[in-house]
Write a structure and sequence with these properties.
- The protein is an all-alpha fold.
- It has one domain: Growth Hormone, Chain: A (Up-down Bundle), CATH 1.20.1250.
- Helices cover about 80% and strands about 0% of the residues.
- α1 packs antiparallel against α7 and α3 packs parallel to α5.
- It starts with a helix and ends in a 6-residue tail after the last helix.
């Protein structure tokens, strides 16, 4: 397996799993810490929609203002250019997780701060996945369908497992330490995105599957 394929599949699966594990953390934070009822807690899920809407606007502006003019002027260019927004997006994910975990676990900090953490994390996940899903078919056009199928299987499997283990993890470790563990994993993946962006052309040159 090419390193780029393995890393992107693992990274997307990790983000997907953490995204779904949030659903188990919400009751522990907003019902037990802040005393919300079920209806009030349900409203906090709107933060995910807000994060997606903001990231759609930012990503669309990037495509319309930066990518399309570059393509018209210079052609498609290197596939690694599509990973440029993924670099700040990879930073947003651990930032959002740490904000959510350590402000939501104490109870005396206003609940809106932890909700902002969810928005930041969601923005990072959305932009990162968009970048990766554009990058892969540009690098491996002949195997795009197989790559998407494998990626979908990996991320769905990890998400299923995350739902099963996340609540016991949060109860055993606490919301703050548990979310910090997840934030640490996403922070460790920042280096992988940088390697793909900076040295992806060299990895492609050594691959027998990538487009030359």
């Amino acid at each position: 397996m090419d390193p780029a394929i393995g890393f992107t599949a693992g990274y997307v699966a990790l983000c997907y799993g953490i995204y779904y594990s949030f659903f188990e953390a919400f009751p522990l934070v907003y019902i037990e810490r802040y005393g919300f009822n079920l209806g009030q807690m349900g409203l906090t899920f709107l933060s995910i929609i807000i994060g997606v809407v903001i990231s759609i606007a930012i990503y669309y502006a990037y495509i319309y203002k930066v990518v399309e003019p570059e393509i018209r002027k210079f052609g498609l260019g290197a596939p690694e250019r599509r990973l440029l927004p993924a670099i700040p997006a990879s930073l947003l994910m651990p930032i959002g997780l740490f904000i959510f975990g350590w402000t939501g676990s104490v109870g005396h900090i206003h609940w809106i701060v932890s909700v902002i953490g969810i928005v930041i994390f969601t923005m990072g996940v959305f932009v990162l996945m968009q970048c990766i899903f554009v990058y892969l078919p540009l690098v491996y056009p002949q195997y795009a369908a197989s790559l998407f199928a494998g990626n979908d299987f990996a991320r769905s499997t990890v998400a299923f497992a995350a739902v099963m283990i996340s609540r016991p993890m949060y109860i055993g470790m606490g919301v703050g330490p548990g979310t910090s563990l997840l934030g640490g994993l996403t922070a460790a993946c920042i280096g992988g995105i940088l390697v793909l962006y900076l040295y992806g052309d060299k990895l492609r040159a050594r691959s027998r599957f990538s487009a030359k």
